[in-house]
UniProtKB/TrEMBL annotation:
InterPro entries: Glyas_Bleomycin-R_OHBP_Dase (IPR029068), Glyas_Fos-R_dOase_dom (IPR004360), VOC_core (IPR037523)
Name of this protein: VOC family protein
Domain VOC residues, every copy: 10-127, 169-283
Species of origin: Robertmurraya kyonggiensis
A Pfam family matched in the record: Glyoxalase
Signal sequence, renumbered to the chain: none
Highest taxon listed in the record's lineage: Bacteria
UniProt-listed CDD domains: VOC_BsCatE_like_C (cd16359), VOC_BsCatE_like_N (cd07255)
Length: 283
């Protein structure tokens, strides 16, 4: 998975606000197949390999249900090591009876979609080999067709589900934004991502290192959609990893030229995109 290490910039974890911690813990352990890395009365850090944080869930005081038609999380996407792993995961999900929201073949990948108990969107997917991706100059060919479930199930090795494999990583994040032009300026001119495909004037996929996308951006919740309130369940923040302090500092300087302020926090550097989504810039 060379698209999620140096010299690329990529998403490696998300933090979510939930309304009932224990309910969410049950979901992420039993349905998604993550493990608890550490836990307090108000939060839990979840992992696939027993050491690397992927998803943190927190139950803040006075948290309210997820507000509709806001900017923020469309879905976060867990990338599995192989197609056989995706087959095993889909079989488990079907047998669990938990409702799925979709299953698609995107040409570059195959994906399953569902939501957590608070309505936070989740994609679980496996990439096709990068050498099979089709490019037209700097634009990648992607699509959305029905997943061939029968063919995918043929990859299942017959082993009992043991949760997500240790090689699972955060593959990408997809966000609702208020204005696509402002988002493009922030993420491309500021943070240094490159556009890999556009979907009319409504969505934009961006990446580093010619991945099919590390970040998706869309205005499907409406142009000018408001940011959620601080009390709303949903995405608290996500983390972008830079290959070095130097590369991160270059991004900070580009953001400052766009009059976007970056703050120092315990976990790294903190910035908000133009739609109010909070990002930790880490190394």
């Amino acid at each position: 998975m060379t698209f999620h290490n140096e010299p690329n910039v990529y998403v490696n974890q998300v933090q979510l606000k939930v309304t009932e911690l224990e309910r969410s813990l049950t979901f992420y352990k039993e349905i998604i197949g993550l493990k608890v890395l550490s836990q307090t009365e108000e939060s839990a850090i979840l992992t696939a390999d027993g050491k690397t944080p992927l998803v943190t869930i927190i139950e803040p005081d006075n948290v309210t249900p997820k507000e509709p038609r806001r900017t923020g999380l469309y879905h976060f996407a867990l990338l599995l090591p192989s197609r056989a792993d995706l087959a095993a995961c889909l079989k488990h999900l079907v047998e669990s009876g938990y409702p799925l929201q979709g299953a698609s073949d995107h040409l570059v990948s195959e994906a399953i979609y569902l939501g957590d108990p608070d309505g936070n969107g989740i994609e679980i997917y496996a990439d096709r080999p990068a050498e099979k991706w089709e490019w037209m100059n700097d634009s990648i060919e992607m699509g959305t067709v029905a997943l061939d479930v029968e063919d995918l199930f043929s990859q299942w090795n017959g082993e009992k589900w043991q949760g997500l494999p240790a090689g699972t990583i955060m593959g990408h994040i997809h966000l609702h934004v208020a204005n696509l032009h402002e988002a493009e300026q922030f993420y491309c001119e500021g943070l240094g991502f490159e556009i890999v495909t556009r979907y009319g004037g409504q969505a934009l996929f961006i990446s580093t290192g010619r991945y099919h996308h590390h970040i998706g951006l869309n205005t499907w919740n409406g142009l000018g959609a408001p940011a959620p309130s601080e009390k709303s369940a949903g995405l608290e923040h996500y983390t972008l990893v830079f290959p070095s302090d130097d590369e991160r500092q270059k991004a900070v300087e580009r953001l400052e030229k766009l009059n976007i302020s970056v703050e120092v926090v315990k976990k790294g550097l903190h910035v908000k995109d133009p739609s109010g989504t909070q990002i930790i810039l880490a190394v």
